Amino acid sequence: MGYRIALLPGDGIGPEVTQATITVLNATGVDIDWVWHEGLGAEAMETHGVPLPPAVVESIRELGVALKAPITTPVGKGFRSVNVQLRQELELYANVRPCQSLPGIDSPFKDVDIVIFRENTEGLYSGMETYDAKNDIADSIARISRVGSQRIIRYAFEYAREHNRPHITVVHKANILKLTSGMFLEVANSMSKEYPDVTYDDRIIDNMCMQLVTRPQEYQNIVTTNLFGDILSDLCAGLVGGLGVVAGANIGDGCAVFEAVHGSAPDIAGQNIANPTALIRSAELMLRHLGEYAAAEAIRLALINVYEEREGLTADMGGTVGTNEFAENLARGVSARVQLGSLS
Question: Which segments of the chain does DSSP mark as H helices, in order?
Fold first, then answer.
């Protein structure tokens, strides 16, 4: 069975980690016909006047699945994040960020296995801001809806049940933000009664941060609002080695975009030193989404083996190989596991 999938190679190191990921995916034997969308962000602003042309959004909507590398977002000025636009225009309400330990990474914690479920379209990232020039005051509205809260919380509970991860923690600030966080917590409390097989508790956001840097192994699934989820997902990535080694997925009812959530790192672009692990792990999530479980498992196990052996890692992980060499080595391991599976 073949798949047509939108591919957004991004900018900076994006094209390099994209090619590395394609090398690894090719080794699985899964037939993928890539629909390329290059030149987004700043380049698209120059040629189309917008960072994300409508034709790209429609392509992803039609195909249903996309793999996306980093795209640079200007800080403090310029165009809005392409990531945010994709999530809002395609209603990709569930940002799913697995943060799982890899062997051989120098970290104060071992055996961390946390999945963050971040509401992806509301909250402070709704983009509803005003500026009062007379008084030099800027306001931003954190909009939380009951429907938005229900769909991300239900997604988290369903995921916990389906993947045999029977504990969920909802994170909020309902002690202070009594209407917005209060609604989110109320919805979670009510919905938890529909899932008696999933244990449930809640944490205030600041306490949650402390918990995660003292005993992260006690947590399995965390569901929260947009801003809190953005912060916690990066924090949890730091527990397992950083943004360069964690996957990301944006899921909606009609389509899904899988992405590396690290930056575009233009300062090292074109030098063949970028670590492609994050996009490769995102591609693994994509394969699972497509039902290609054997191929996804081949990537997961081969990647663990590469990190266990400590040979063939990129410089950021203490190794000496380049982006391409890392991918080629990993691809050989994937191919061997696929062949082994076909013979069993």
Answer: 14-28, 42-48, 54-63, 82-89, 146-162, 180-192, 205-212, 226-239, 277-289, 293-309, 323-343
